[in-house]
Design goal:
elongated, mainly alpha, single chain
């Protein structure tokens, strides 16, 4: 079920990449061909980019395409890789996501309380929505981490 949540989310947000390209193209054409500029259009690319990456992170973990910084992982045996993955999820990923969720929540709550406005004059009046991506990111990644852990712990340890 968790995998399905992140797969569905990814299938929805992947279209944002196309919208980002189209909007950026329109911004460049507007600015350099027609001499027209829009702060809101520029910010919309930022909002789309943030949404794409924050909501797509859980899916990236699902398909195991995230960045690995463990230099020993590539040459490790399957059993060692499994132990590294379990350790990473239990002691690094889940605690860091829980800390980020905990420490970002007051900022998100306050942003909603005042319906925080644009980043720049003439920008999109929805910073509160962009800040909401932080807890959404944390929850989706934590859920996917639990799903991966369940799979790792239910496997027989390779020899």
């Amino acid at each position: 079920m968790i995998d399905r949540i992140n797969t569905t989310t990814a299938n929805l947000v992947r279209w944002l990449a196309l919208f980002m390209v189209l909007i950026q193209f329109a911004i460049v054409m507007g600015r350099y061909v027609f001499g027209v500029n829009s702060i809101a259009a520029q910010e919309s690319v930022l909002y789309l980019h943030a949404t794409l990456f924050m909501l797509g992170a859980g899916y990236t973990l699902l398909v195991d395409k995230h960045v690995r910084v463990d230099v020993f992982y590539a040459k490790a045996s399957p059993a060692t890789r499994r132990r590294i993955d379990i350790f990473g999820h239990l002691f690094l990923l889940l605690p860091s996501m829980a800390a980020l969720l905990y420490w970002s929540w007051p900022s998100v709550r306050n942003s909603w309380k005042i319906l925080e406005g644009p980043l720049s004059v003439g920008g999109i009046e929805a910073v509160f929505l962009m800040k909401t991506l932080i807890p959404a990111f944390c929850i989706l990644v934590m859920l996917q981490s639990v799903s991966v852990l369940i799979r790792l712990l239910s496997q027989r340890a390779p020899s």
